[in-house]
Amino acid sequence: MPHPYLKEIKKIYAAGADASIAKGAKAYLLNQFEFYGIKTPLRRQICKAFYKTHPIKDHVELSSLIKACFAAPQRELHYFAIELLGHHHKLWSSKTIPLIEWMVTHQSWWDSVDSTNSFVISKFFLKFPEQIELTTAKWNQSSDKWLQRMSLLFQLTYKTNTNITLLTQYIENCQLEEDFFIRKAIGWALRAYAYTDAKWVIQFVKAHPQLSNLSKREALKHQ
Known about the structure:
Shape: globular
Distance between the termini: 55 Å
Structural class: mainly alpha
Number of helices: 13
Mean pLDDT: 97
Strand content: under 5%
Largest sheet: none
Helix content: 55-70%
Number of strands: 0
């Protein structure tokens, strides 16, 4: 029996569906997911209103609902689940880490993984800094490329609070990876930190000749 919460949001999304938008969105993500066809601004407007009027009582219910959303074929329901977890940050605890890992490793593509970082992961570690090193070190050594990507990107918005020791270590551990999304993440992480300390990033790139050309280009894009 579907959760009433999920049943209702599916009904709302179905009412706002647009087949032409869905077709374009599906093609953009290489036909890996189905879509209702709801543009992001409208979808977020619907979500915000829905979250406010449909409270979640505890972490167990939250986790169950997120996994039910991810089991649906439509990508908008995956986005809904990610932003739902972000909205309910008051329910976050160490128990949220396995849920985050589950989300990153299911229905995985750059859009959902990076969105999970924006709405949850980066903010989670600011709230629970004591969890950073143990969790992200495990991700960095994972055989799952999306967890590896998160170990590189979780500090994207940290600026002067960036732990450059971890950033250095994690990039060095991944610099020989051939996967596009890892190489891109290395460059993106360095480019983000360059807004805080461009000299450090330029020197880092010079000191790491084994970095891929993609990583170097991304890192030095605005230098």
